[in-house]
Amino acid sequence: MPKTATKPGRARSRKKSTDAGIQEVPIRVNVNGKAYAVSVEPRLLLVELLREHLDLTGTHVGCDTTYCGACTVLMNGKTVKSCTLFAVQADGAEIMTVEGLARDGELHSIQKAFGDCHGLQCGYCTPGLMMSTYQLLLSNPQPNESEIRKAIAGNTCRCTGYQNIFKAIRVAAEKAKGAQHGDQVFR
Ligand code: FES
Ligand code: FES
Fold first, then answer.
1. Which fold does the domain 25-99 belong to in CATH?
2. Which of 18, 39, 135, 186 is 20 to 30 Å from the Cα of 102, by its Cα?
C-alpha cells in the first residue's frame, strides 16, 4: 500500500491508481491542528492513515474486532475507534490523537495524572484511555464513579486492574474542574 503526499497544507491530489489498479480517493483532514491533503485507497482504515501515512504512531492497534479501544481518537470532538472507520469517512474532519494532548513540550494534565498515579504498566492501552478521558472531562469536568466507568467502557487494559486508571482520571478531573463546560483548552 504505497504512501502518498501528506505535507501539511498541500493541495488536494488528483485521483490516481495504485500499482494494483485501485483508484485512490483524495481527502483532507486536520489532525492535531495541522491540515493534510492525502490520496488514499478506499479500504485504508483511519488508524492506518494516522500511523502509516502521517507517522502518528501513538494511536495503537490492539485487536481486530473493535474491542480494545487502543485506537481511540477524537473525530470532530467525539471519541471514535479509528480501526473501525475508513480514512475516507474522515474527509473534512478534525482529528485529535494522543500526540495532540501535549503542548510545547509540556504534558497535558491527563498525561501527568496517568504517570503520577501509575495508571499504566505496559502502556499499550494508555493513549486510547487518555483520549476517552479527555472527551469525558471536556463534557463533564466532575464525573462520578459510574460516569467514569461508562466513559472508559470501550477501553480495555490487560495489565493494571483499572484501580490506578480510575485514580488518574479522578486526579485529572480535579484539574478540569476549573475549565468551563465544553472548554476545548483545559490543560
Ligand atoms: Fe482494538 Fe481498535 S484496535 S478497538
Ligand atoms: Fe498494559 Fe493497559 S497498561 S494494557
1. Ubiquitin-like (UB roll) (3.10.20)
2. 39
Task: Work out which ligand 1 atom sits closest to the CA atom of 72.
Answer: 2
Domain 109-176 has CATH 1.20.1250.20: no
Residue 124 burial (CB < 10 Å; 0-12/13-18/19+)? middle
Q: How far is the centre of ligand 2, averaged over its atoms, from the C-alpha of 62 (Å)?
A: 10
Per-residue pLDDT tens listing for the chain (187 residues): 444 444 443 434 445 677 778 899 999 999 999 999 999 999 999 999 999 999 999 999 999 999 999 999 999 999 999 999 999 999 999 999 999 999 999 999 999 999 999 999 999 999 999 999 999 999 999 999 999 999 999 999 999 999 999 999 999 999 887 665 544 556 7
Enumerate the CATH 3.10.20.30 domain ranges in the chain, comma separated: 25-99
- Say how far apart CA 28 and CA 12 lie, in whole Å: 7
In the reported structure, the alpha carbon of residue 81 is separated from the centroid of ligand 1 by a whole-number distance in angstroms of 6
- Residue 161 Cα to ligand 2 midpoint, Å, equals 9
Global pTM value: 0.88
Residues having CB within 6 Å of any atom of ligand 2:
120-125, 157-160
